[in-house]
């Protein structure tokens, strides 16, 4: 079927961007890839094409693979209620949805995803298949099921806790199962009836227990919070990332500007990452302008912004990745900061910045090629001309299974 991947490829281009912060732009340069890792970066005239099985001269820009730091691979975004759908379909159908979303991410240039909520075991299992070369897809950093209060947001996936002991053992269990991040529902959510998005629903003592156990296990904690009080509680508990992070008061109205500013400063001082899930196609009761203003405030105060689209929610398939890039630019972040939020910054938030998020010798060969210079015009990211994940090339235009060198059991064994 697929032909075996070449073990080594040299790619030469008009420029190579190794990092967006600090800026690393190398004109007329090349990236060498061997056995899924980068083994050379530098001026193309100093490269040794004869040492590689394949030489691709691509033009345009080679840059680090993109990251979506908030996805739900198990969700079919065409469903009105993807949570109910995910728990009602057969395991085979669910695995099909996960694999399909993963392949679509790759074609969009996304080579790493952080999955923040899926039915127990499913996405963890898929992530292992990718890691072992048995499935094509982005690297998956997964939380498995979220932790939530009894009947709290996304309780349908399990993960309901109401004692310190229960929280502690739930985290240990997830760590043993292979989760790399713990997702906690600090507030309710709009997709779960009987929960309130503007109330802190996870007890502070349980949140502290989750953070302590997760950090002891070497895992990060991602806190879903849709209101200002939830954000404050999450920062106070020492979580690593705040998801959504909208500054909304208990009555559903936007927080006064001074309070939003104060919270933004607290977040920046704590070094907490914020994944604002700001997207130009994401329906929300608060206006895009207001939410964009909060992102701008956070960014100006020095908070660490990471890009995550909540991919999988209704109407938001993997192909809409670029809408999140566009949204952060519309919010007022610089193009370099937006690109960093989509590469190096989330890698840092996930604790995998030695592996992904940049291009350097020894790092995983996750990269994409775009026409032109993305720092001058972010629209170049809409159509990558080549995507490489773990050294394997995916043809971004093709929907076919016959893509050359696509990961398959036969090509990796
Ligand atoms: Zn989500």
Fold and architecture overview:
With 413 residues, the protein is α/β, with parallel strands linked by helices. It folds into two domains: 8-64 and 358-399, Urease, subunit C, domain 1 (Roll); 66-349, Metal-dependent hydrolases (TIM Barrel, Alpha-Beta Barrel). The protein is built from twelve helices and 16 strands. Strands 1, 2, 3, 4, 5, 14, 15 and 16 form an eight-stranded mixed β-sheet that branches. It has a five-stranded parallel β-sheet with strand order 9-10-11-12-13. A three-stranded parallel β-sheet has the order 6-7-8. Strand 11 (241-244), helix 7 (257-270) and strand 12 form a beta-alpha-beta unit. Residues 70, 72, 116-117, 310 line the site of zinc ion.
Secondary structure layout plus pairing:
Layout: E1 8-20, E2 23-34, E3 37-43, E4 54-57, E5 61-64, E6 66-71, H1 82-88, H2 91-107, E7 110-115, H3 122-131, E8 139-142, H4 164-177, E9 181-185, H5 204-216, E10 220-225, H6 228-237, E11 241-244, H7 257-270, E12 273-275, H8 288-300, E13 304-305, H9 321-331, H10 335-341, H11 344-349, E14 367-370, E15 386-389, E16 392-394, H12 409-412
Parallel strand pairs: 1-4, 1-5, 6-7, 7-8, 9-10, 10-11, 11-12, 12-13
Antiparallel strand pairs: 1-2, 2-3, 5-14, 14-15, 15-16
Bound molecules: zinc ion.
Residues 70, 72, 116-117, 310 line the site of zinc ion (ZN).
């Amino acid at each position: 079927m697929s032909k075996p991947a070449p073990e080594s490829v040299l790619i030469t281009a008009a420029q190579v961007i190794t990092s967006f912060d600090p800026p690393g732009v190398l004109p007329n340069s090349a990236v060498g890839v061997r056995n899924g890792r980068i083994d050379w970066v530098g001026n193309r005239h100093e490269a040794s094409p004869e040492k590689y099985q394949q030489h691709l001269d691509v033009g345009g820009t080679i840059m680090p693979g993109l990251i979506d730091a908030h996805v739900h691979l198990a969700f079919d975004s065409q469903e009105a209620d993807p949570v109910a759908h995910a728990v009602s379909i057969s395991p085979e159908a669910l695995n099909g949805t996960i694999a399909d979303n993963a392949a679509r991410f790759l074609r969009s240039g996304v080579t790493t995803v952080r999955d923040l909520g899926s039915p127990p075991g499913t996405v963890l299992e898929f992530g292992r298949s990718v890691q072992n070369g048995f499935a094509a897809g982005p690297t998956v950093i997964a939380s498995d099921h979220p932790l939530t209060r009894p009947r709290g947001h996304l309780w349908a996936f399990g993960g309901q806790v109401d004692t310190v002991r229960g929280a502690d053992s739930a985290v240990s269990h997830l760590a043993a199962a292979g989760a790399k991040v713990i997702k906690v529902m600090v507030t309710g959510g709009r997709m779960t009836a009987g929960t309130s998005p503007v109330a802190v629903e996870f007890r502070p003592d349980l949140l502290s227990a989750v953070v302590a156990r997760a950090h002891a296990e070497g895992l990060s904690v991602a806190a879903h919070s849709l209101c200002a009080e939830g954000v404050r509680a999450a920062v106070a508990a020492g979580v690593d990332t705040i998801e959504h992070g909208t500054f909304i008061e208990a009555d559903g109205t936007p927080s006064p500007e001074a309070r939003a500013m104060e919270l933004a400063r607290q977040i920046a001082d704590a070094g907490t990452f914020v994944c604002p899930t700001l997207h130009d196609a994401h329906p929300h009761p608060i206006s895009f302008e207001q939410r964009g203003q909060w992102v701008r405030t956070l960014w100006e105060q020095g908070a660490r912004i990471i890009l995550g689209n909540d991919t999988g929610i209704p109407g938001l398939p993997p192909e809409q990745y670029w809408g999140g890039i566009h949204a952060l630019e519309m919010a007022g972040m610089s193009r370099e900061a937006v690109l960093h939020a989509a590469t190096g910054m989330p890698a840092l938030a996930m604790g995998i910045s030695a592996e992904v998020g940049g291009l350097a010798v020894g790092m995983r060969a996750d990269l994409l090629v775009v026409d032109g210079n993305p720092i001058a015009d972010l629209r170049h990211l809409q159509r990558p001309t080549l995507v490489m994940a773990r050294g394997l090339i995916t043809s971004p235009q093709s929907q076919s299974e016959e893509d050359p060198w696509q990961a398959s059991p036969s090509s990796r064994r």
